Automatic annotation (TrEMBL):
Name of this protein: beta-glucosidase
One Pfam match: Glyco_hydro_1
Keyword DNA damage listed: no
Transmembrane segments: none
Catalytic residues (UniProt): E366
Similarity comment text for this entry: Belongs to the glycosyl hydrolase 1 family.
GO molecular function: beta-glucosidase activity
Species in which this protein is naturally found: Amedibacterium intestinale
PROSITE patterns xref list: GLYCOSYL_HYDROL_F1_1, GLYCOSYL_HYDROL_F1_2
Amino acid sequence: MNHDFLWGGATASYQCEGAWKEDDKVKSMWDHYLHEENLENGDIASDHYHRYEEDIRMMAEGGQNSYRFSLSWPRIIKNKEGDVNEKGIEFYHKILDTCKKYGIEPFVTIYHWDLPQYWEETGGWLNEEVCYAYQHYAKVCFDNFKDKITHWVTFNEPKWFICSGYLIGNYPPAHQNPQETIKAAFHVMYANALGVKAFREGNYPGNIGIVHSFTPVNGIDDTVETKIAMRYADNYCNNWILDTAAKGEIPIDLLTALSKIYDISFIKPKHLKTIKENTVDFLGLNYYSRTLVKPYTEGETVLIVNHKGKESKGESKVILKGWFEQVLHDPNMTYTEWDTEIYPKGLQEGLIEVYQRYHLPIYITENGVGVQEDVSVDQVQDDYRIAFMNDHINAIMNAMDEGVDVKGYYAWSSFDLYSWKNGCKKRYGLVAVDFEDNLKRKPKKSYYWYKEMIQNNGKTI
Ligand code: BG6
């Protein structure tokens, strides 16, 4: 194991900062949506905005050498004209200086879903202008933080926020429209290329990558029908992000399939040229589970949208008519409380496949398990989290033994925070945050386990 390996935890601005309108921050689309719908929101969240010093110190005391977090666009850019909020810039300088003080390497995502509401009101990701606004925002970040950040991420999980926002409809702007999904997805990948372009043109130090919600695709059997379904699923789940960002090419069979049903005339040669010329330096993979598929049979493909935990589950019909069906529950497998299959082997297999395809360095930028926990106790005994992380880290080590260039691992999440649409009851943290008792921080058992594992240089149980 390489001693430069980055070990840390991850968070996202909306999910942990709170201070939703402090220091001239404007509204994000999530502030707007959750307030309008009267849903649990991240107005306060873990109050990282005021407690970042304690949080970062605890990372260092937990043996971690890196912290993955995101910058908030509505904290940094005040309006459509692109004016900069100096107080937002100052806040992230404080975070970065604190990281330095504690020997923590920052790994920074430019966009983790909190689009300014003033852009959402112009059509959000359906509006090509937003791509250029993103490029401006990214450039402001590069210019201001170039001396303190060398690991940059353009976007967190395009598939997840676009499909949830425009296809399934459980995230803002809560549309269910396949045609819009395709357009918004394309715009995000174009904006990714524009961000990379700005980074290259400015000659900033360091590297830039994209983070993908990676679900390797497995089939239920070896038939030709299943293999065709798997290819469709892989295009839907992975390839439109990874091929486009890493090779500068949108999978041709995906474009062909889409063009038979939808209008893709908004894709112009100038966009494709920018995408081709501006590929990423590394891939970040968030791994929670795989996608198990079978051939399409009848009706429409249905994905379960599991956003409320045990109490209720939403269901949504989606576009992929005739493409594939997802096997949602296999009685032989183990699932989390939120019905996510626990499948570490998928990470090992998936890493090998992705590395063979793209030959780029890989970071595991998120991995973890969401559970309802009683945090009033002195120490949460989260042996299930230890087992989960242990098995997944072990899968990474096996892939590395087979030659895959993995450069870092980030637990999701560094500490308990707001989970999109699940509120604060779905906890992922290594450190408990007591939302009922003054947001008190208490390390869980997994925090100490992680520390020891890092000290032993990745040695799992
Ligand atoms: C990833 C996101 O999709 O999964 C995180 O990057 C998110 O922001 C995490 O919180 C877990 O998802 P959830 O919905 O359980 O909070």
